[in-house]
């Protein structure tokens, strides 16, 4: 069965609107509702803050703890959308993380149920 699917503009816009709202509202459960139970993230921030992870965290419970601490430590965290790029089973969210004054590209890979199973983050210099 072919599970490759082009992410459409309507889905992408709705998804990103909810995703950014969750982060800007600091609503961890709203954020996590978009992800599978065993999703993974690759992020240079985890490599910096939790060197033992080597930048890779897997599983909703571990990521909940990591993101929860990030939200707690960054009460001014706010994202501003720059653009969205759609691909096959994936989309990239290009945004500015206002609190750390960095631009970010977050690549999200979706399963058949349109839940994120993998996220890869990249930050500007």
UniProtKB/TrEMBL annotation:
Domain SnoaL-like as annotated: residue spans: 16-86
Higher taxonomy: Bacteria, Pseudomonadati, Bacteroidota, Flavobacteriia, Flavobacteriales
InterPro entries, per database record: NTF2-like_dom_sf, SnoaL-like
Signal peptide stretch: none
A Pfam family matched in the record: SnoaL_2
Identification of the protein by name: Nuclear transport factor 2 family protein
């Amino acid at each position: 069965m072919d599970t490759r699917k082009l992410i459409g503009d309507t889905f992408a816009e709705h998804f990103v609107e909810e995703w950014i709202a969750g982060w800007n509202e600091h609503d961890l459960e709203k954020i996590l509702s978009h992800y599978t139970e065993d999703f993974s993230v690759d992020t240079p921030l985890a490599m910096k803050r939790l060197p033992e992870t080597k930048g890779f965290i897997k599983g909703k419970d571990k990521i909940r703890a990591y993101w929860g601490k990030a939200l707690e430590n960054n009460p001014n965290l706010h994202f501003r959308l720059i653009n969205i790029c759609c691909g096959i089973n994936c989309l990239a969210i290009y945004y500015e993380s206002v609190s750390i004054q960095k631009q970010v590209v977050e690549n999200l890979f979706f399963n058949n149920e349109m839940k994120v199973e993998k996220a890869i983050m990249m930050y500007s210099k």
